[in-house]
Amino acid sequence: MSTFLELGLKEPINKALTDLGYEKPTVIQEKAIPQIISSTEDLKAFAQTGTGKTAAFSLPILELLDSSQSNVQAIILSPTRELAVQIGNNIKDFCKYLPDVKVATVYGGSSMEDQIRALKRGAQIVVGTPGRTVDLIKRRALKLGNVQWLVLDEADEMLNMGFKDELDKVLEATPESKQTLLFSATFPREVEAIARNYMTKPVEITSGEKNSGSENVTHEYYGVTERTRYPALKRIADLNPDIYAIIFCRTRRETQEVADNLIRDGYSADSLHGDLSQGQRDSVMGKFRKRTIKILVATDVAARGLDVNELTHVLNHKLPDQIENYTHRSGRTGRAGNKGISIVLVNGKEKGKLRQIERIIKSKFIEGKVPSGKEIIKNQLMNLIDKVQNTEVNESEMEEFLPSIYEKLEDLDREALIKKFVSLEFNTMLKYYENSKDLNNLSSRDNSRARTVNENMTRFFINIGRKDSLNPGKLIGLINDQNIGDKVEIGSIDILDTFSFFELDKNFEDKTLEAFASNQPDFSGRSVNIEITKKERSGGGRRGGRKPFGKKDGGFGRRRGSEGGSSRARSDRRSSDRPDRASRNSGSGSGERRSSAGFGRKRRES
Ligand code: AMP
After folding, report:
1. I need a labelling partner for 535 at 20 to 30 A (CA). Which of 35, 159, 414, 445 fits?
2. Can you spell out the DSSP letters for 286-310?
3. pTM confidence score
4. Band of residue 598 on the pLDDT scale cut at 50, 70, 90
């Protein structure tokens, strides 16, 4: 294994890498850096995110560029704003000790004027998204006539996102003599066509085996039905107390629904997709990086460029439409020497795709079994006990309080004390999984029985929804603002585009109607009204639900009382998005109003 100096990089670059903690080059760096430094041949590199590819193409450029000239010498195209910003920042870090090198990052959704000013100040390296780069070329603010290096990063993703025309335009604006460096995790026909049309006999390098899944990633699949998909997802999250994961979904809508359900069920989760504003996306990504959020539900495109190396899991709620994208997803975990697990939830029909993916990743899927309630509880308990064992006691701070605590607990022996303390944390969880089913053996028929309704709850229709920026938290806030009563329990919440549903303690049915009628609340400029869904009111013809979940007893509680299949409930509802028919679905028992929860869930400190 060589050092960065041995690969041909100068001391100021090496020093910056040492500051960043890069001890030795990665495989792709070892192959690409000397190749680019010593040859002007075009380069085609098979490299996934997480392999160190940014440094692989930018370090040799930094080594070679002429910092005494202020014209653009390298243009780096990347599919998303996030990735462009990340690459720009990486390069700025790399040239910490190269004071004359300037980097400009250009992308849509941000002031064009600021970016033009940055270009005017002179930047030898420009990192850009394809659309904004073309706009700036058209405005003559970006001149690529002297470019020596053109980097196409994540070329497959740029083509997937429909940037073919923009790529063509940028390629046309650069001189023939440039060196083109194309980095891609997959090489479908369209990427090969770019390589064929715009590159001259490129040298090929790989970061390992072509298109292989990272060797640090274990690939598992879990058989589910549409009704068990969401409960299975929750059980997998519950089994892993220290989960830090991205859940990938195919569409924005699916992403929002899964995230809403997880938030409603008390998990520390949020969504990331293209319907969010740039500010919202930045905020979600920031929270995820800082681990304020433990589970990020994201579309493939939105998750690009999220630079997180420590993911424990990648969860595929549904497989991507283009199976090649599976490698992008699974490559988000098992990075920087860490181990990772990529889990796929598949129904009978989707199972066939696994064989195709295995051919691409050159690795086999291991069949996983959706964990039982007992397994989850055991795992969580042991995790808690480990944490107790490793907790440091701050003797001096506690000293003053200890005598009165000892006095209060003096009648309890060691065993009773342990039991009480464990129960405090676990009663809610134990109750939740009390009669939990084996999700592995539920046929669709059995599953329909799992979809139960809580008879202690009334289901309300409310005339505001996602388009009004409503989310479960805001809805709970709105209900609380009506002062219906301190002890009123809120059950399942279903936020739809233009209206929503919520369940609420049946005993407060009339009070709730009265409160909304007399307060006449507004939400996002709309006057709010609610109705009881008709069948709910008559109360007839429904099966009994699970027992209500524990009250506000702290510990690992959720708001929801059952694992009821939300996704099924939602698909039913879509065919009957009207209050009078909505009572057909529910799927959840009553529950705690506040998410407390441990694991991947939010614990409310109060
Ligand atoms: P990339 O594939 O360029 O997105 O890089 C993935 C992550 O690995 C980034 O967080 C880099 O900072 C880090 N990284 C890249 N090269 C090295 C290296 N040689 N040693 C340690 N970390 C690295």
Report:
1. 445
2. HHHHTTSSSEEEEEHHHHTT---S-
3. 0.51
4. very low
